[in-house]
Design brief:
By secondary structure, the protein is an all-alpha fold. The chain has nine helices and no strands. Helix 4 runs antiparallel to helix 5. The longest helix has 50 residues. The mean pLDDT is 89.
């Protein structure tokens, strides 16, 4: 039995998440069946799809606990592979990119997770941002295809950064050795997930309630300044209240939650811009009406590496 299962605070925190999901699921069913509700049908469907996505995220978290830190690396490596496949399937490539894509999928990304498992963080930090950044254009240049060269290399590098580099920092949280916090690293993973996902939901709720001024309507028509600021403030307050489950003080928790929310917002906006650029609504259909894997982890991918390195720099020796 994994040691994390015996962590009372972790089980209390996760139990609270499950209770909230049950309540939200019931509310969603009521909204769906109540045709006289003031909530529009599309809003109710989006709400239920969001809750369905959260249940799947909870399953991933439970699996991470059951398989342990090393098993979690393998689990998230699979998620990275599937997310990158979604991305590269929809982003145009050429015959000259095939060899580079092979190296990206089957060498570079597995090597990133292997280095995380070794806790070789200095190399983890530069492997994809620096080494792969040099390798990818060199490999495509050797193939001899120069058409849209810069555009093609950038697309592959960005996919590796988001799907491989950024996501690999999520299971890396389970390997951190924080003095006085040994054996409780799963709380950090859950904390990140709660603050990140609640930020998404609360931005949506505040936007529906008081949203008036669009941020970037051509990129994401539903995002408003009122929704973004309301979600940012609410999710930061929630993260502050959860300080007891972390190695942070309340003030530190507030600052870190704020950063998670800000980066999560940036991730959602950037991925939306990519989808508009290539003319698609979603990257996949893993979750009904809520898109594919990359659609569900866009905000998490931007927040995870910064959160990991902040915690490692200030709390781990």
């Amino acid at each position: 039995m994994p040691a994390a299962i015996h962590d009372f605070k972790l089980m209390l925190l996760f139990g609270g998440v499950l209770c909230l999901l049950v309540i939200l699921t019931v509310i969603g069913r009521i909204l769906k069946q109540d045709h006289n509700s003031m909530v529009s049908r599309s809003t109710a469907e989006n709400f239920n799809a969001q809750i369905a996505a959260w249940w799947k995220i909870c399953v991933v978290f439970v699996l991470s606990l059951l398989v342990g830190p090393l098993g979690s690396l393998f689990l998230f490596a699979i998620l990275s592979f599937l997310a990158l496949r979604e991305y590269m399937t929809l982003v145009p490539t050429r015959r000259g990119d095939h060899r580079t894509l092979f190296w990206s999928f089957f060498v570079i990304m597995p090597l990133q997770y292997y280095l995380v498992g070794l806790q070789w963080y200095n190399l983890v930090a530069i492997m994809i941002p620096v080494m792969a950044c040099i390798f990818i254009p060199t490999s495509i240049a050797v193939a001899g295809d120069t058409a849209h060269f810069l555009e093609r290399t950038t697309k592959i590098q960005f996919g590796l950064m988001v799907c491989g580099y950024c996501l690999s920092h999520v299971p890396a949280l389970l390997l951190l050795k924080i003095p006085g916090f040994e054996g409780h690293d799963a709380r950090l993973l859950l904390y990140l997930g709660i603050v990140n996902q609640m930020n998404d939901l609360l931005q949506y709720v505040w936007g529906k309630l008081i949203g008036r001024h669009k941020i970037a309507w051509r990129v994401s028509p539903d995002k408003t300044w009122e929704g973004a600021l309301g979600g940012l403030a609410s999710a930061t307050a929630l993260g502050t209240l959860l300080w007891w489950a972390t190695p942070f003080t309340p003030l530190q928790s507030a600052g870190i939650s704020f950063i998670i929310c800000l980066l999560g917002f940036a991730g959602g906006l950037v991925v939306s811009a990519i989808k508009r650029d290539i003319g698609i609504k979603d990257f996949g259909a893993v979750v009904e009406r809520r898109g594919g894997i990359l659609d569900r982890i866009d905000s998490l991918c931007f927040a995870a590496p910064i959160f990991f390195h902040l915690v490692r720099y200030y709390f781990a020796p």
